[in-house]
Structures are given as structure tokens and as C-alpha cells.
Write a structure and sequence with these properties.
The protein has 197 residues and is an alpha/beta fold. The protein has 5 helices and 7 strands; from the N terminus they run E-H-E-H-E-H-E-E-E-E-H-H. Helix 4 packs across helix 5. The chain starts with a strand and ends with a helix. The structure holds inosinic acid.
Length: 197
């Protein structure tokens, strides 16, 4: 069965294929099918945003569509930036600008607990939806460390490992990350669903 990934990002496709290959499904990027819909992510939860994206691409392609949505939730900021993670601090900032803005907002904060979260939604043309979630707990470091990864990786510190996400190899990060966990959970849900159909 062919699935379309609601994304233009070849990196995300590679990650998805690596996990879903074992389930025996084919996944292609929406851009490979010439689908250019870009949905406004105006949901109030990661799950809602993932569903909005999957629904739109399913409708445009006529194929089952998979979408994911992730973000960072910081306890001392009442869960912010949450669904605004990608645009935290305003449109003009780059990754470094965004995590510096976060460090500034947490200056002097005792409680630095935070977690990354990922929601995955898969919508079939007949309206069925499969979902999966992943979560990775950590703390926001006082200063950035490490040069791998992207986004907030240099300031997301894992006390159990004594390292930030940006100090892990891609394999090490994938083994514990919110996205890695959500992908593996999704592969399991999809496998069970397809076996039961
Ligand atoms: P997306 O939904 O996967 O595009 O993630 C939204 C935003 O969350 C990204 O633009 C990043 O700023 C942030 N983000 C998501 N996952 C990670 C991660 O693994 N490390 C660092 N930042 C992340």
C-alpha cells in the first residue's frame, strides 16, 4: 500500500521509510506527487495540527496520508512554546535566535524541566485515523552545548546522559527522541491495523 507523507522534507521521508519499510508500506513525499498544499497549522494541540496536515494531503492525493507535528513544552512557561515552537520569538529569528530567546525567558528560573512531544496522524481516504505519540523529557540547559542536530537541540539537556541533544549522534538521539518514539509507536499501530483489515 502506498502512503504519502505530508511534508516537503526528504530527511523526514528517510526517517519514516527506515521505520515503515519493515511494515511493508511505501511512503512518498507530497512533493513527489506534485501536491503543494501547505496547511495553516492553527490547531491548539500537536495532534490537531498533525491531523489538519494529514487530512489536507489525503484529500489532495486520494491516498492515505501521514503527518507529524512536534514541539517543545517548558514547565516554567506553562507549556510554552508548545504549538508555537517553530515561530517562538517571532518570524525573524533563526534556530539560534529562538533558543537564545528561550534562555532569556528562563533566566533565573529554578525549574527548567521541559519535554519534546511529537504527534503523528495517518488519515485514510474513508476517514479512518491512526495516531501515535512520543515524548522525551529533559531540562533546558543554562547555556548551549554541542553542534549536531537542529532547532533547540543545543539547549535540551538529558540529565541521565549528561549531554544535550546536540551532543548525541543521530542514532543515539533517534533511540530516545520524541520523534523516534512516535515513529516506532506509529509503525506498530499501522502494522496491527493493516493485519486486521
Ligand atoms: P516540526 O513539527 O517537526 O516541524 O517541529 C516544530 C519545531 O519544533 C521545529 O521547527 C523545531 O524548532 C522544534 N523541534 C522539533 N523537534 C525537535 C528536535 O528534535 N530538536 C530540536 N528542536 C526540535
Amino acid at each position: 500500500m502506498k502512503f504519502v507523507l505530508a511534508s516537503h522534507n526528504p530527511g523526514k521521508l528517510k526517517e519514516m521509510q527506515a521505520v515503515l519499510g519493515a511494515v511493508g508500506v511505501e511512503v512518498v513525499l507530497q512533493s513527489e506527487l506534485g501536491i503543494s498544499v501547505d496547511v495553516e497549522e492553527n490547531g491548539t494541540t500537536f495532534a490537531e495540527n498533525a491531523r489538519l496536515k494529514a487530512e489536507a494531503v489525503c484529500k489532495a492525493s486520494g491516498l492515505p496520508a501521514i503527518a507529524d507535528d512536534s514541539g517543545l513544552c517548558v514547565d516554567a512557561l506553562d507549556g510554552a512554546p508548545g504549538v508555537y515552537t517553530a515561530r517562538y520569538g517571532g518570524e525573524g529569528l533563526d534556530d539560534q535566535g529562538r533558543y537564545r530567546f528561550l534562555l532569556e525567558n528562563l533566566k533565573g528560573a529554578e525549574n527548567r524541566a521541559a519535554h519534546f512531544q511529537t504527534a503523528i496522524s495517518c488519515i485514510f481516504p474513508d476517514g479512518r485515523e491512526l495516531t501515535a505519540q512520543g515524548r522525551c523529557d529533559g531540562v533546558i540547559a543554562k547555556a548551549p552545548a554541542g553542534s549536531d542536530g537542529f532547532g533547540y537541540d543545543p539547549v535540551f539537556f538529558l540529565p541521565a546522559l549528561g549531554k544535550t541533544f546536540a551532543q548525541l549522534t543521530a542514532e543515539e538521539k533517534n533511540a530516545i527522541s520524541h520523534r523516534g518514539q512516535a515513529l516506532r509507536a506509529f509503525a506498530q499501530v499501522l502494522k496491527e491495523h493493516l493485519e486486521g483489515v
